[in-house]
Amino acid sequence: MSRFLIKPELPYCKGCGHHLIVRNTVKALEALGASPLDVVLVTDIGCHGIVDGNFATHTVHGLHGRSVALAAGIAMGLPPEKKVIVYIGDGGATIGLQHILEAARMNVDLTVVVHNNMLYGMTGGQPSGLTPTGFRTVLTPQGYPLPHHDLPRLVLDAGAPFAARVVGLGDFSDVLRQALEVEGFALVEVLEICVSYGVKMNPDLGLRPDAQTGLGGANPGPRLRELARETGYEPGVWTGPTRPAFRPARRETASLLDMPPVLPKHSSPLAGRMTLILAGSAGEGVQQAAELLAQAAIAAGLYATKKSMYPVTVGVGFSTAEIVLSRSPIFYHGVSEPDVMVVTSADGLENQRKRIDQMRGGILWLDASLPVPETGAEVRITDFRGRAGARNAALYALLTILRATGVVPPEAFLEAVAESPIGRHIDPSRW
Amino acid sequence: MNETRSYPVLVDGSRLIAEACVRAGADAYVGYPITPASLIFFYASRRFPIALPAPDEITALQWMAGLSAAGHLPVSATSFPGFALMVESVNMAYMMELPMLVILVQRLGPATGSATAGAQGDLFLLNGLMSGGYPLPVFCISDLEDCWLLPPVALQTAVDLRTPVVLLTSKEMVMTQESFDLARLAEIEPVHRTFYDGPGPYCTYDPGDGLVPPFLPVGNDQHQVRLNASTHDRCGIIQHTSDESMANTRRLPAKVESRTPVLYSLDEQEGAQTLVVTWDITSGAAREAVAALRAQGVPVSLLIPRTLLPLPAVYLETVDRYPRVVIAEENHQGQLAHLLFGRRIPPHVRLVTAIGRMIRPDEIAREVVR
Ligand code: SF4
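YS: structure for the whole thing
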């Protein structure tokens, strides 16, 4: 018995092609001189997936269709000398096709062995994405009407350096050995017949016992080659351009807390709490202006929070920020009725119209281009957009309010602007 | 961090979470973008020793399981639509007993809902996440300091219990920028982790005298490792419903029930007749409500759970001591209230709920003095 197996009797129906896949895998691994603990066998759901108990390698038995993604995670986490092999059926390859294509595209160091018996064996013989046209299954007794996926072609298209298709008869261990030697993604599709369902539904396959395989039971023998040809399942070995296998390198990174402190160089007359809403349009610097105000408030010794609201389309429509400034710590940073509402564009007005309507006090700072809405707030109209341009209207509006109220010293705000990335491009003190 | 001098910054929870994870020893982040968890993905991509963008959330969880199987400690963050795709794979990792951390940032549902609106609507989902109803450790962030303190606890729990762990939070918690003194952050102890180094054969799911089997990565040179998401015996061999495999399956909830750390804050006031219970983002409103009530001379107590699941018995004991309980949470039906009291909420328990907006302090205070 091979050192890769701990039990020679495999858990499959007599005559099932899965037997030969295991024997050829073991032979290929022996030819490579690998040791069992250098190998991780990841199995999918299906009859093939219960074979891990036979293997002396590391074994991982996961979910239906996900084994290639699971194995990719393992391969990315292990050193290159380890071999990660995936056993998956045609059903698993169908549900998990994206995982196969992604692993091929990334060139993850894996060998994927697809047990293609052209139907779902474990669940009773239903057709899969690899069932060929005309093949009869329990659900398609008249013959399957659609063409099958061409897996080797798909993975080569996705960037795999190696793909092969073999008819699962006799010794195909050399193809598996080649696949295992590839540094990167390799897929071998093995065509076989499920003797329980494929044979029963397709009596014209011309089954006969085949003493040579030594497997006993029914074996489709040479008719499998013919079937492969008739259904466009051409055997072959194909290679794509070679490139390094994908291995995530560990990197050194810097702390996310290496950020300059906002030191309290200024002071503020604010005794309690002030809430402010800044409403404008996406792309007009609303969020950045609000963040700079929050920073200026911290520099003035206050507590501050800043929240952003915008539609899912980040680049168009409204952009609103809610700011809370406070002398004491802020636990609740929501804003229901703001003390100050600043509106710099029509999008912002539309977004905040209901809240503006409900304001019973406070101040509404409104851009001069906008119609004056119904509100209980005191309205102050200023030409923010005309004076500073649309892109800087929000920034200028906040500066205007600070100049008028002094709740945060305007100098603190100007300093925050100057120290920010936009400080190189604009000088709001000139407005 | 300097203990004495203050270090004020404007910071969001996402940044603290990502930094805390790395300092605690998480070494791989697998991400798929989704609002409102993308900010964590952004920071993690800059900070984690290994950061991998996945093509979808199923792949993300499978890669994490693979990395975990190989001995890494992976983290991802997502929101409901992505989490829904992860559910089968989280079950897989639970069954395989693979440590990992999933940060679930709640947003308004159902379905895609409103990606940029917060919510506390996924507690029911987490309570029934495992087929069979087995408990998963779930911790919940209630303020910026928790963004720093809870990731290490969650990661240590994942390692100690060999299980996926969920760290629950929500949009306004991880995306709101707040003034914060970084000097308040304590040093983070890296997660303590050991691998099996005994004699062979190694049985992946043999817990010895305890409840948690020692871990050994696949691909190691010492012993064969077998991982299995199907019902299995102590050695990871698939079984139907053998006694040994059923004992193994029963061990999974037992380890989580008995060994998940119980973290909460209970601020009790002498003479208080009412206990306010809240979690996640509503904790801030509750703190303000309680402070305002006390300032008015109304005694009131406050319970903020950080361990949400499995639901610690101490919460039930605590609510039982109060003639009135006010439970505030940003969802439709009061999910924590249902976990505490069942579908028949007794009359002495008052709910403050909302969807599509944060609950205000005055709503909680009003219910307390009612
Ligand atoms: S049911 Fe089909 S695929 Fe499964 S072991 Fe039997 S012959 Fe093989």
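YS: worth flagging: The mean pLDDT of chain B is 97.
IM: good catch. Also DSSP finds twelve helices and 16 strands in chain B.
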